[in-house]
Predict the 3D structure of the following.
Amino acid sequence: FLEKEIFTMNSKTKGIFQILLILLVTAAMGVVAYTGIGAGKRGSAQNIRLGLDLAGGVSVTYEATKENPTAQEMSDTVYKMQKRVENESTEASVYQEGSNRVTVDVPDVEDPQAVLDKLGKAGALEFGYYTEPLGEIQWEIGDSTKNVLGYECVMATANYHGRDWSVWFSPEIPMQEGPWKLTGLPGLILEATESTGQHGFVATGLESSNQIIYPIYPYPQYDKMSRKDILRQMRNYRDNGTHMNAAATGMSFGKDHVKNEEEVRIDFLETDYR
């Protein structure tokens, strides 16, 4: 009987202490939630990062259209998406789900549709690249010759991506290279002009070099686009850049320059994007 009574009293005492402990912990958590800890008020309710369900925003999941994408391709996609949303919110997060899905969470944004449009637009931040085959220029070699840098050169003509080119190549230098994309002749191109006179190249000297040629940008981290799409976006930015920068930053940069007739005629090296 005594042992049982003692057991009962101890159980009651233990229960009272547990209740008091719970009340104390709850009160302490309430104080921390209201005031926080330290000068930075860490842990206070005002510093809790709200999720999408509380703060509002955008959450979208993309699935790769390519069957069985590689780990590198998925990593590159995550990087590209991060670059696209990093200016939208400091709370934005991009992460991979499974082997072929990427989820983008952007909380606390005023215009969710604008964010979705930005995410869905290829090359929205001009992180774009394209590839094209070599040797697609159909040259016509003529009979005219002239001297360039002391080398006997032969004229060749071709229409390439919207422009009519006349070039001078030297069979004495057996390299099928030239300025820009002008290649494919049986000799190095030393001079090139196009019919409107807007663009031209001329060699001013030749010298050998052991300098290593490094990549100019990390292309796997860019969106693969078509050549014409990139040129169209570049043209749009050239014509409306001030307005686009203002829309992107919320700042005023004045009005876009109104081009005269001569400026309107000036175009890129390739004009077939129009």
User: Anything to note?
Assistant: The chain has a mean pLDDT of 76. Strands lie at 57-63, 93-97, 101-107, 128-129, 140-148, 151-160, 163-170, 188-194, 200-202, 223-224. The first strand starts at residue 57 and ends at 63. DSSP finds six helices and ten strands in the chain.
